[in-house]
Structures are given as C-alpha cells and as structure tokens.
Fold these 2 entries.
Entry 1:
Amino acid sequence: MVYIHPTHERADPVNNLKKRQLDLSRHLSVEAKARLPNPIKAIWKVAQVKPGTINMGNGDPHHTLYPVCEMNFIVPSVSESDPVQAWRAGTGDQQIIASYKDEPCALSLRTALAYGAGAGLKHVRDALAELNDRIHAPPKHMVSLSLGNADALTKCYRLLGDPGDSFLCEEFTFSAMTNAALPLGIKWVPIRMDKDGLIPSDMEKILANWDETLQGKRPHVLYTIPCSQNPTGSTLSAERRRQIYDLAHEYDIIILEDDPYFFLQYDLDIQTTTIESYGYTRAMADVLPRSFLSMDYDGRVMRLDSFSKILAPGMRLGWVTCNDFFAEKLDMLTDSSSQHPHGLGQAFISELLGGEGWGIDGFMKWVSSLCREYQRRRDLFMDVFRREVESSGLASAETPKSGMFVWIKINVERHPRYRKSEKLDKPGAPVTNTADLMNELFRKLLDCGLVMMPASTFAIVDQTGRIPTDGHITDRVNFFRATFVGTDEVIEDGLKIFARGLEEFFCY
Amino acid sequence: MVYIHPTHERADPVNNLKKRQLDLSRHLSVEAKARLPNPIKAIWKVAQVKPGTINMGNGDPHHTLYPVCEMNFIVPSVSESDPVQAWRAGTGDQQIIASYKDEPCALSLRTALAYGAGAGLKHVRDALAELNDRIHAPPKHMVSLSLGNADALTKCYRLLGDPGDSFLCEEFTFSAMTNAALPLGIKWVPIRMDKDGLIPSDMEKILANWDETLQGKRPHVLYTIPCSQNPTGSTLSAERRRQIYDLAHEYDIIILEDDPYFFLQYDLDIQTTTIESYGYTRAMADVLPRSFLSMDYDGRVMRLDSFSKILAPGMRLGWVTCNDFFAEKLDMLTDSSSQHPHGLGQAFISELLGGEGWGIDGFMKWVSSLCREYQRRRDLFMDVFRREVESSGLASAETPKSGMFVWIKINVERHPRYRKSEKLDKPGAPVTNTADLMNELFRKLLDCGLVMMPASTFAIVDQTGRIPTDGHITDRVNFFRATFVGTDEVIEDGLKIFARGLEEFFCY
C-alpha cells in the first residue's frame, strides 16, 4: 500500500489525523470480518526476512519462459498544444510507449507478467498516489488498483454490506450497479434529487427519522456519483458536498464516491499562467471540483477512480483510495477473488505516466484537451437541442457541467392523454399515467430509429426487480438520459429524430 | 456464449444430450438465484432489433478518442522445431503480434478497448471453444472468459455456495483458494489422498455416510485439481476420474475442475506421424489426460483453464467451460462485479491464436515445447534429489507426471525426538509430534537459506484458521511442496541446502 502525503490545505495534518482518523471496523461485513489472510503469503512474510534465500516454494513460471519480450503502444504525443484535436485529425506526432522484459523501463515485463499483489504493483500505485496527492491532497489514505469502478464498487458492497443492510443512494442512479447489491441482501434507500443532484436535507430527513424497529439497521453507507451523476448529469456543488460529508460524519456513514466522470469537467477557468508556472496538473487541480476524498479527515470516504472514460473502457483499470484499514480488507478480498490487475495494463500505465511516456503532467494535458473536445460536443448538443427540441416546449434540459449525459425532461403533462388519477383513496398508488406515456414515447422513438435511456431504467427497484410505487417515483420518470459524446452527425441526426418523434407523439 | 460442437467419441451426441443434460438450477446459491439482469442491457436487447438505430443511450467514449491506435507484442516464432529452447537461447526467430484500431486485424482495438460482455468477446471465446473442442470434445458446453482460475473459482463459490453448505476437496489443497470460501460460510470436507490423488472410495464413504441431521446439507460441490494437484503434484488416473464422475452423478455433485497445469504434462508419447498428418493440437489431444469436462454428459462439470502457467501469470486470463445454464448465471455475476476481461489481453490472445499469429496449432506447438523444457527441469530435480537427498533415507518423493511440484515426504519417524503420544484417553488429539518437528525443520531450512512450502500450509482449516485435530491430519503433515520450475542453479543449490539442513536436523 502507498501512503499519500498531505501537502497543503492543512496547518497541522498529523495532529488533524490523530484527532480524526476513526476506528471504522464496525462497518465491515460479516464476510469481510471472517476473511483469513492467504496462508501461502503469510509463509512468505516469514521467509523473506533473509536476503539471498532460495525459493523452492512457489509455482511461478520463470520469466525466461514468458513468450513476450517487448510490448509497444502507439499513442498520441502530448507535445501538441491540443493533443486530442491533433490525434483526431491525424496530424499530430505519435509516440511509442514501450515495455521490455530484459531492457530498462519504468516497469519491467518480468514484474508485470509475474504474480503480483491484489492491490497492484508498487510502481503503478505510487504514480496514482502522486496524481491523487496533487489533485485531492487527501488526508492519510491508501491507493489500491481496481479493474474499473464496477469491480471496485461491488467489492465495496462485499466489504461493507450484510444481508438486511440498507444503503443510501440517489433516487435515479446507475441501476446496473445498484442492482448488483440486491442479491447480497442490501436494500436501497433512495434520496430525492433536484437539478443539482441529491438533496442533503432529504438525506438528513431519512436518517433523522429512521426507525430501527420498523426499518432495520440505519443506513451506514451512501453510494453517490458526485460528478455527472448517472443518469441525471448533475454535479454536486461544493456546498452540498460539505453538507453531505457533515451528515455522514454525524450519522456515521461511509461514502462510496464513484467518480468516473471527475476528469471530464467543462467551462473550466484554467489559468494559462498556472500552466506555465506549475504545469497542467496544478492548473487542473485548481479548477476541478473538490472531491469528498479531499475533505475526508474521518477516513469514511472510499473514492473510486477509473481510466474507462479518459483512456478507454476496455483498459479495465481504476483505483480505489481509502483509509488504510479498509484498504487492507479490500486487498484481502481482491487476493481472494479477481487477484492482481492484469500486467499488460499495469505496464502500459506505468510507462504512460512515467518519464519516457506522457508523465503525470502530460496525462493531465491530454485530459484537459479531452475536456475541451467533450465540451465542444456538449455545446453542439445543447445548441441543436435548443433549436430542434426545446423550441417546441415539449422538452427541456439543464446544461451539464461534466461527464457525458444530458437529462432531458419531457413535459408529459402537455400530452392529450395525460391523466392525474382521482384514486386518492389508494395511498401509494401512482397518481399519474406518466410511466405509461413515457414507455409509449420510448417505443415511438425506437420506431423512429433512436434510442435514449428512459428514466425508469434508473429508478431503484426492489429485490424482485419492480419499481416501488409508494414513493411516487413513477410520477417523476418523465426524463430520458441522452449522451452527447457521440459524433456530430449522431447529435444532429439523433436530436432531429427526437424532435420529430416527440411532436408526433404529442400529436402536434 | 459459444457452443462447442461435439465432434467425436459419441455416436449420437444430440440424443445423448437430450437424455442426460440435467436441470441443475437446484445447485444455485440464494445470491445467484436473486441476481437480476442488467436493466440497461435489457433495454439494448429491445433496441438492437432495428438496424441503423441511432444510439444516444450509452456513455461509451468514442473510439476516435482512445489514445492508442496500435499495440505490438514481440513474441517467439513457433517456426523453430523447439521454440522454447530457441527463445531461451535467444537464437530463434521472433514475430510481432499486432492489433490495430483502424487497420484490419483479428480483433480491432475499437472493439477490444470498448465496453464488452462479461463473458468476453466472441472472437476470443470462439478461439477457446475451438481449442476446447479439439482437446476435450465436450458435450454441449459454453465458454466464458475469466481473469484466471482464482477469479473463476471464487465466482463459482458465489454461484453455488450458501452459508452452511459443505463442499468436498482434497485433504491437502491450494489453501489460498479454499480459504477464500470460508467467509462465504462454506465448510470444507476433506477427502483422503494417496500418491495418486484423492481416493474415490473415501469420497464415497463421506457421501454415503453423510447424516444431514448432524452434519447439515450433504455436499453438492467437489473442488479438485486433477493434474499436478496443488500441493501434492499427483495426477488423477483415468480410472479414478471415471469413478469420481460416477460418484458425482450418483450423489448429484457439481465438479469444479481447476486445471491450471493441464497443459504441462510429461513423459508424453507424442506421435510424430500424428503431428505430420494432423498437427500439434491433435497429437497433444491424443496424449493429454482425459478431463472431467470430456466425460460430462450431465453438465455437472465447471472446468477452469488458465493462461497463467503456459503464457504468464500477469496475463490474468483464463476460461470457464460449463453448461449453458451455469454459464449464463456466471456471466451475470461477472457483469455485476469484475465486468469484461481487459481488452489488451483479449486482443493479444485473439491475434496470437489467429491466422497472423501462432494459430491454435502453433500455440499447441509452443505448449508441447514448454512441456519438454519443464520435463527437463523435473528430471534434473529428481536426479539431484535422488543423489543428494533420497540417498540419506530421510526423505523420498514420487516423480510428478505434470505441473510444477514435487511432494517431498520427510521420514519424520526417524528423528530422535519423534514421539507417538500415549494419550489414547484423549480421542481426537494428535498422537504424534509430527507437526511440531516439521515446523522446526521448516525454520531450520529457512536458517540455511531455503524456502519450501510446509504441508501444514495446505491442510484444510476451520473458520477460525485452525487445522482441526480430529482427523489426525497433523500426523500426516510430514511433507514439503517444492517446485522444480526454477533455474538449474536453484534446483542444484536448493536441494544441496535441503540435504544439508535435513541431515543436521536429524543429527546425522
């Protein structure tokens, strides 16, 4: 594990840590508490005391028998002023990211292709800890590699969740991941949202009014996507983050900060003078949102970062940053399941972030260039949306500050067949036919040749897969999640289809 | 999922399947039964009916923004008659395994670096299904990729095991993996072994005498390592495999066939004429042991294969072959946890096994060459062992037929301080001081500068991590697991240290 050394924003970090870092062992699941260390690795801890010891213990193939001596990736050079544009145009310089088995490089293939620790190789973790440190300056935390945020998050469920536990989440969320917790017996408690994301006062109301005799154990985990919340595209303000962290402190909540879109922020006021004096990392760190991790003196944040959106999803690499106690338990789970992340990706990341590759600053330059490109696409999307769609008055959307998604509100109450139910004698039943109309509209758009994700896909379901009707969420599913990261043609053509389908559906 | 078409050894495979493929849903865990499909993927099943549909649904980065356009690996050419020797000597030809984003290749980086299905990309699964088919000719089964056998096996635990379940295993086994089942509430029931591996009659005795009122639910899963069993190095004979499969059929047991050493077999009588007429794959298939998978008409075998020992452990890729029902449930678990295996490895395997790479037959040529090299090391190990160690009469070992390990028996009863306990009034207590003496010997060897793995490391422990004393396994821990896959120097030097340490310990 790698320590991240606090560097700024604290007068006396050591004393702060002593005061605040908490014993959080009560949050561990029965499974995590019961996990035994690997007996074979325990032997090795004893055995590796003495240098020069001959190892006849392990069944590791010798590196001379790995049938790979060199691995190369052709990547864009970040020497261009706008490397993403140069790469797209095919006009920019390229560079080779090379790893070797028998020649010097940042991380030898001898190491990368051998068995390793579940947490990942020190070289990669050090690089990511440095990146973390320069961006979040977190209090004492550790970095472990993951296979991306789905892997990391579902491991956090195993780490923290027991059957019967309730976890908090946003009322619309990335259902593939919330559904993944259901077979573990975890129940989701949705928090109301507005255009700025989850509403802290609703979170407080849930926690303050929790009745353990009726509802079971009070939630001790919050799952949240703070930037470009999936599906709503909202980004939590600094003020809300502070309120949420304070509530987590007050009610002893662990925050799972799932932040795959963190690096994709728009309308950033990046200072050229800062770039010139301190480089891209510092300049970006100055303007990126403040993460929950950065304010985590208690050690109650498990932050999940991913390369999926900024390099490629097939990379299947990310990193978890959390307190050292959780990190140790997480690494034991990894050693007992997926094992160490693949060496090919670890070698690639080592070289890319190393001195012969982009380096951390070059990586952040790529990221800032990527932000500009995605911002261009977002702006195009919103321009076309306003022109083609919003003008009809049938739909509207907030401009997202980050990520990949626009949350399009359908003004369903303007539909001729929109009904408010009179059945007030049936409390808990849906009071409008919003869900039915939205389902019709989804099919209509599909007939027109367009897929957008209906909001109902992201509503929290119960253990049987059904959306509960008691919270009237079915009255608020009048949204589509649309992505703006496709090509310009997809944006233009897609939104035109959307406008036409919408007008036909509303019988205009 | 990929069907593997049965090709030989069955007169009427379709009818056999109809007769034998069983409904095995009763074996699923509560967790596996409760798992919901991914609602986002469900939408896509609806949406992808119509070609030309515009996708504004998903948050996938566009391939033009992946910062990699080409990936190369320098590997040995398999045109050499003995490619492993040529590679080690640095005299052989090399070849480049290349993947491209925008140029033709077996599996485009556009696909490999995108999001994919948990089961892996069709291209890779097809190649592995073909390999399977040519070696095992299994009845109707499916292939899903894994991140290696630890990943695959621990997912099988989640798939099949509920708290309180008992699973069968060999009495000495790969404890890192059996320990991984303990926090899930799975109890292990060890089966006695001899020099040829697990003893079918002991397995039958356990099952026939099982008392559900006293012992809980009868075991419904067997975890076994049939080739080069870890740690004992034994390989199950064809006759034992048949007996074990028949018992599994009779007592309704699912067999987890963990076979990472399958491809490393020695003393094989490979027919040159078969190589010349049909290639390496057929020639190897003719002489490799018959797997449980190959006899699995019931669909009760989940076979786990890995590239760790034949390519490199850091590759973190393997494959699971099982019936289509389990495969679907396994893939749902993968989609809800680690997600699809990394694209870098999938691209590499696709090109390596494809027409521009080694091809399947070239791969099997590499494997057969690797077998010769490991056989050479095994023979060297056994020669040195007989000369330096066995001659003293203090230790002995069977010559392993496969894999990486020698199971060295220490003749502990010849030690001056060896004691048989007289406490016959304490049934269940250890009756010898074998465990203590072996612990001393392990420390002694460590002082001499040598690590071998003590047998006690591989004994089944209870939920608290302790070795139960009631089965007198502590009287039978007079073994070390030693590997013969190190360099010649390690073998020579290590065994000399072993001989000296042993003689000093026995006070000769």
Entry 2:
Amino acid sequence: MKIAFLGLGRMGRAIAKVLLEAGFELTLWNRSPASLEALVDAGGKLAKSPAEAVKRADVVVSMLADDRALREVMLEGGALEAMRRDAIHVNMATVSVPFAATLAKLHAKLGQGYVAAPVLGRPEVAERGELNLLVAGPPVQVEAVWPLLKAASVRIWPIGDVPEQANVVKIGANFMLGVAIESLAEATSLAEAHGIEAAEFIEVVTQTLFAAPAYQGYGALIKARAFEPAGFSLRLGHKDIGLALSAADQARVPLPLAAAVNARMLDGLANGDGDKDWSSLYEVAARQAHLDRRGS
Amino acid sequence: MKIAFLGLGRMGRAIAKVLLEAGFELTLWNRSPASLEALVDAGGKLAKSPAEAVKRADVVVSMLADDRALREVMLEGGALEAMRRDAIHVNMATVSVPFAATLAKLHAKLGQGYVAAPVLGRPEVAERGELNLLVAGPPVQVEAVWPLLKAASVRIWPIGDVPEQANVVKIGANFMLGVAIESLAEATSLAEAHGIEAAEFIEVVTQTLFAAPAYQGYGALIKARAFEPAGFSLRLGHKDIGLALSAADQARVPLPLAAAVNARMLDGLANGDGDKDWSSLYEVAARQAHLDRRGS
Amino acid sequence: MKIAFLGLGRMGRAIAKVLLEAGFELTLWNRSPASLEALVDAGGKLAKSPAEAVKRADVVVSMLADDRALREVMLEGGALEAMRRDAIHVNMATVSVPFAATLAKLHAKLGQGYVAAPVLGRPEVAERGELNLLVAGPPVQVEAVWPLLKAASVRIWPIGDVPEQANVVKIGANFMLGVAIESLAEATSLAEAHGIEAAEFIEVVTQTLFAAPAYQGYGALIKARAFEPAGFSLRLGHKDIGLALSAADQARVPLPLAAAVNARMLDGLANGDGDKDWSSLYEVAARQAHLDRRGS
Amino acid sequence: MKIAFLGLGRMGRAIAKVLLEAGFELTLWNRSPASLEALVDAGGKLAKSPAEAVKRADVVVSMLADDRALREVMLEGGALEAMRRDAIHVNMATVSVPFAATLAKLHAKLGQGYVAAPVLGRPEVAERGELNLLVAGPPVQVEAVWPLLKAASVRIWPIGDVPEQANVVKIGANFMLGVAIESLAEATSLAEAHGIEAAEFIEVVTQTLFAAPAYQGYGALIKARAFEPAGFSLRLGHKDIGLALSAADQARVPLPLAAAVNARMLDGLANGDGDKDWSSLYEVAARQAHLDRRGS
C-alpha cells in the first residue's frame, strides 16, 4: 500500500514513524520540510508539493492544523485533483463538521474515497502506536485502509458510515476535556480563596473521585504552574471549543458549559497566552478571583 | 469510646454499621426511627431524643441532610447544650461554610470540640468501610477521634486546623462531579443531534479519555436512562451546587460552570424531577435540544 | 398619623423629609444618629432605640440595608414586640422573598399589619417625592397607609394582597437593570476591541435604540469612567442579583443572565471595587478583554 | 445619481420606495421578482440579473439577508465584476466583520468604493424615511453618497473611515437588544413563578425603569403572546447574536451574556420556532421554568 502523508507536525511525524516501522511505503510532504530527517532515514521519500506527493498513492493520510490548512492543501493546492480516481483520503485531524461533509462529497464526485479517522491521544501515545482512532466512512473504504489504521492505533472505534460523525465524537470528547480542565481551575481557585493550598486540593480530588489520567495530568500542570511549553495549546483548545459550539449551532443544541469555557479562554487569549497549555485556564480563574490580592 | 450517632439515613446507617462492627459503643437517634432494627441487632441502643442520645457520649457523630436539619437537632433540639463539656462533635455531612464556622465557635464556647469530616463515596462504599474522609479541626481533637475515623474509612485526608476548610474541599469536589455529569449530558445530546447513538458516544469517551469510575458510572445510568431510584438525587445535587455558589460568593470567586449547571438543574427541578438521580441532567439536555422532535 | 421611621441612610432621609413636609408627625431612629439635623429642624423627633421610636406609632416605616439589618432592628432589637397591636409596618426596602413572608406572618400573629412598599428610583428622585412605589399587602392595610404612600411618590403600583410579591417585582426590575448595565459594558468593550471609541459607541446606542434614562445615565458614567462616588454600589447591586438568584432557586426558574452578571460582579468585588458604582462592571469587561494591552 | 438596488425584501422595498420618492433613478433586482409592482409603478426599472442591474449605476445599494446571499450576488453572481470602475457599493445589511473587510478590499482592487451603512430601525420606520444609519468608509466616498443616505434616514451616524466598524456598532446594538428581550423574558418568568401576572409585571417595568420603545414594544408582544408573524425572526436574531460572538472571538472579547442568549435561542430553534418573532425567547423561559405545570 503506497501512502502519501500530508502534514508532519509533532503528531503527524509520530504516526508516520509508526507506519514506516510497520513496513508501509510513505511519500511525505510538509509545508516546512524541516525536521523530517528521521523519517527519511526510516525510508520515507520527500515530495515537493502536495500534488506530487499524492499522485501515485493508494491512500492519502492528512494531519493538518485546521479547516483552513486542509482547504489550502487539498483544494487550492491541488492535491484533491491530483489524487488517483480510486484512491482514499484518510483524514486524521479534527476538522469542522460541515467541512468534513464537503470534503466527502468532493472526493465522491471524483470517484475517490474519504474516511474520517480523528485521533484520541497525545504525541507520546502516538509514537508508541497506541492512539485510539474514531473511524467513520463507507464500509468498503474503511476496510480498505484497515491495515494502516490498525498499525497506528491500540484500538479502532467504528462510528458508522458517515465520515463527519467521527468528527462529532472527537469534538464532543475534546469539549468534555476542556470542561474538565476548567472545572479543576474553578474549584482550585475556590479552595485557594478559602485558604487551602492548590496542591492540597488537587491531590485530594485527583486521587479520589477523579483518579483518571486526564485530571491527574492537568492537575499536575496546575500544581506546578507549568504551562509552557504547551502539550496542547490554549489556541488549539479554543479552536476545538469553537468547533463544538459550531456543531451545536448547526444542530440546534444548547451547550451552556461550552459557552462558559469559551468566554474564559478569550480572557486567556486576550492576555497573550495562546501558546501556553490550555490548563492555563487556571491562570484565568486565579486572575478573575484576584487571588494575588489576598493575604497569605 | 462512647459514640452518639445522629442521623441514620442510608449513608448514616452504613457508617454506624461499620463502627458497631469495629467494636464501638453506639447510641442512635434518627428523626424517623424506622429501619434501625439491623443496627439494634448489631448492638446499637436507641435514644428518644438528640439530647438523650448525646448526654453521656465522648463523641457525637452527625450525618444530617443539610444546614437546617443540623440546626434543628443541635441548636433548637438542644443536643449541643446536652453534650458533655469535653465531648467532640464529628460532623460527617456536607454543610455550608459559614454554618460550619458557626458551629465550631458555639462548641468552643462550651469547651467542646468540633471536627469536620465530610465523606467522599456512596453508601455502598461506606458499607465496606472504604470511604475517603476529608478531616479538619484542631489537631488534638482530630487525634482523639482518629480511631473512629480510621474504622470508617479507607483513607483519611487531613485538610488542616480549620474545620470549615474540609467542607470547602468537599463542596469543590462535588461541584466538579456535577460539572462532569453535565458535560457528559451536553456532549451526548450533541452527538445524538448529529445522528450518533447515545450509547455509542458514551462508550467511546468513558473507555478512552474518561476511563474513570465517576464518568463510567454516570455514563451507564445515562445510557440506560435509569434515573430512578436515585443514587444521589437531583435535589441534593442542587443543594451542593448551591453550597459551591455560596462559598464562591462569600469568597468572591467567579464560578461560571457552577452557575451554568445550576440553571440546568432548575429546569429539572421545575419539571418535578428532584427525586431522580442527578444524572437526569441528561433529560434536561435532551429536552432543551428537543431531541424527541428529530427523525430517527 | 404618627409615623416611626427606622433607617435614615440617603434614601431614608429623602423620604422622611418629604413626609415631614407633607405634615406627617415623625419619630426617627437610625443606627448612627449623625446627619439627622436637617430632619430635626424640619420637625422630626429623635428616638434612642427602635423600640422607643415605634411604641406610640400608627405606622412604622423601615428603610434598612438588607435582611440582616432588618432582622437586627425588628426582631433582636425588639421593635416588632414594642409596636402597638394595631400598628402597620410599611417596609420600603428591598428584602428577600422568604424574609418578607416571615415578617408578614410574625406581624399578623401580633395583630399588626405588614405592607411591602419597595421603591423604584434614586435618592434625588425620592427628594422630589417622585418615586414609584410597588405596594402589596392586605387591602385594608394598604388603604390605611395610602396617604403616606401618596405623599412619598409620583405613582403607586398595587401588586396585590401578598406582601412578598412586591419584593419579587422589585427584585425582577433590579435584575433587569443589572443586565442592562452589563450588556452596555460588554458591547462597549467589543466596540473598543475593534478600534471604536467607547464614547462614540455609547452615544450611538443611547440616542437610538436605547434612548432611555437608565441606559443614558449609566452610559454617561461609563463614558466618563466616573465610578466613584457610587450612585448605587457594586456591593448593593451584587446583593440584589443575589436576591434574584435566590428567588429563582426557590421557585425553580433558570435565570442564565443573572448567573452571568453575578460571576462578573464577583470579579469586581474580588478586585476591591465593592464601593464603586455598579456601572464599574465596565471595568470588569475591559479587564477580562485586556483592552489595556491593545495599541491605541 | 443612478442607483442599482439589490435585495428587495420588506426592508429593501421600504428604502427603495423612499429613494424613488426623493427623485433618484433606480434599477431594481431581487431574487424573487414578486411584489415589486408598487416600486415599478413609482418609476423603478426591473433588471434580470445583478450584473445587468449594476452595470450603468453610479451607486449600488445592497440589502441582502446575510453573508452568503451577498457573496452569491456580488462574487459568484458577478455583480462586483460588472460594476463600473468608479462606482460605489453602499451595503445597508448586517454582515460579518471579516466579510465586510474582504468586500472593501475587493472593491478597492477594482478601483470601486465601498461604504457600510447598516440601519437601525424596523421596516415601518424605513417607510417613513426615519431610519438611523451607521455609516463608515473613506470620507470622499461617504460624501459622494451622502444625498442618498440623507434621503433614506432621519439621522446619519458617521462611525469613521473603516467600513467594518459600522458593522461592529450595528452588531453590538443588536446584541444589546437580544439581551434586553431575554432579560424581560427571564424576569417575567420569575414573576409568574411567584404568582404575579405576566401582564402586570411587564406593565410596571416598561412604564418605570424601562420606559423605552424597545422594552415597551417587545413587552407588548410578550404580554399578548403575539409571536407570529415575526417583526424580526428568532432565526435572524440568532444570526445576529452569532455575528456578535464571532466578532468577539476574533477580537478576543468575552461576552458571557451573548453566550447565554445564544443557548436559549437554540432551545427555541430546536423547537421549530425560527420563524417566530425573537421575543418568543419568552416561550423558552416559560418552558425551561415549566410554568405550565404550576397551579393557576
């Protein structure tokens, strides 16, 4: 199976590495070609443009930042046109629900396939091939790319035949994660305002009711106030809450928690913290409660 | 150690049972004396009034529903006056921050002790003696009641010298739990509005990012729409979110998520669902999204 | 008609003055007796305690700060007990719905009357006898105090027989006012972030869609950033939003806007701005949007 | 001055009528050509396409429903290309901030002008030539179209040189209007839950603190529960709150009230009420408080 891989940021590189190690043949393209040596050493070939990368591929995997980047590469950049008529596009990034639907249609018009396969997990997890994949698309296409999906993941969650539904699940899960962080930030600021140490509060809740990796990981960052470098940036977190709010507007579903988290994120972004980890929502909570004005 | 135990609802009975089995001598009082046979069979003695129950006790344990019930029993009911001057009151219920502070002062005036020991865990957990206890109070008093606390719990979390701080931690933890449920309710309704089965969405998120007992337990209730009988009722959940909002108002801490959850709970309460489990927040989400109007 | 007037802050003094000028006989009591000379010069008599003030009065008018002050004066201070059995208490302050109901019952038990008459209007308006009064209570009692109410107001709005319903209307109106201020604060911060002068935006909206005294008055304060001295303080505004949220919790009515305004007020209070005018909500909006970080 | 007028819904027809009466020469185009007889009788000429309508015009006025309609007509429909190189486009509709900026750039590239002139006022007001216009654009262009703007309005509010800033002001004003309606809906539902008639509450507040046309107009609709036909539909109101939230996201400004109103609107839209007046937010409030379950 010849694979073209478009978009080699930290997550993309991790997955591409795993695929090369599993024996797949990869042609690579990234906007900035820097730091692809390791992949080339592992057998990957570099292409000079998206169109060149995809033209002979059986499967095109994309892991691009957002709707806009994907549009630039696939539509304006010509990759969609350049793909073979029987090739399948596996999109592993989180994109908006309507754009996923649009892409699926454009591919179908050209006789191409489109499978949505957004990932749950961080780059470290991807490097071990232990991502969870949310997969949706026409069964025959999903089956065709199954070996590739299997190689990249610890588990595949089939979501159904309609590609954008995988995006909805991913968007819903990320929304819940943003809310979990914000709830930890709010509760910690409440505890501190009542004279309890942040570290003490976080330890109690993340070892009892919330003894789960997500809470423990973000709790540790808040305890240590270690918001840089970002594991997942506030800017991307805001993008994902925005996708949830858009998907909710489109389907007419009130999401009061998403709206509340979004407003707090804007305080952080306005403060210039877009590149910090999204657990820096704690700093917004501390600032709005003016914890620094309180005696020790 | 002679113990008076006031308040024998489901949680109170579970703890009293464990204490009797551990060899403590218990005098019991409950507003409605029904269903205390098992405890009497296990060696507990019944008292006819709170005052009678406490008068010879070294330690008075209370597990009453809310501030009002506690006020009626301890103040208006005369239990505080009737306690020995060297006795210690261990309050295991979730009460408001100012009322905890008030009680501590009143006991101190009479030379009595006051230790806050709110619990994390459900009645089934209490029956196995596996609660987590959040304990705060003057060290010498905490030490004096330690054997009792130890018998009732799997782990004791010392929070410090100021009793009401244990209540703040408990209130913060419960607020986070309410938010977790609401986020699951919102995300599930979003998924359903996009044509994804509730059960499918819940399975994916509670086996990946949110593989934690709290999410899995409430997720199972939502999947099964099994909101009655309540494990923890919407009415009590609303009381606890109210305690968080009060503690936040008192200490001037904005809690936008708590405010959002509270508004959704009021929809449920207004619909007459106060006795359902608080995971029935899902029903509020489904109603406000009018999921029943959508084609299948 | 002999009147006892309890509570002579700025609003109380304004109303008392108008009543004296209308020929009523007034006995005055205030916690701090300072600055009552003008009223004494106008014919008012000073009493040394609430009980002394009320003992010969046909009507007791109260204008105290909040539930607690009223409780201290009427219940703990003994004024209720000291009132004649056929006297009527006219409460012009904004109190909570349950406390208004409680007071009505206590008075009725002693054969006394209770009429709620909260005011709409600021002290300047009260000085001209031009308040709007929201009046509720048993018709025969309302009729008995009508001349007094008429003297103090430009218009009386009868709300019905149940005293606390007048408080609900007053609380609802003040909630709407808090929301109007917050909406002006948010919209102005949005305009500024897009490079439009605050003064320009405020002028346009308060001379077109919102050409109403409330918007124009608060708009002028925001334009001038003139938040001190307060016409109505953020602390009192927060008390009133709290009364709305309590009334809503009691009656199970979701009020998402009140919850949002409350969270913003807490940011202001935590910043130490309780004594500023409540239009300083603009400062909260500007701070959360970090307008000061933006180039001019 | 030869004018092309694109978009003749109720508001567009009202303005076109006024311009014809003021002696301007108009070429008209509307997607559906129905109900333009009155305008033709008054001297307007019909065009078969946007391109045909604009090709000889000095000024092109557009009053189209939203970004998408404007894009279809101006870009995909070829009107922009067909305009003379020295013509000026006066856009009187409410469009998004980024699209206004994009349009301004596209026109400038072709040597054409672009003036934003969104309106404040309803169709009845427009028919009397009494709109308020918010006008922004390069001074020389604004001056050139001044006679036209003057004929259509009671007052012109110059907002500055940057066209999209006029849209920001309009979006801010409409956001405030949506909040005002929602606050009236919430407060009225609170009053009703406490046993007060909706009509009584609305009368008191709209004749005292909120004696302004906006509150009185929407208050009357709520009192009469007269939500159809819509003066301004919930669907359009939701579009406008969405524009406010987008403008806020873009400029990083938290708008908690807008987020709260948006969530309530989604309940209404999900219930199938998009074509009702946006004061039907009252029905959402009544439904979430389950007022129909309460005794009369």
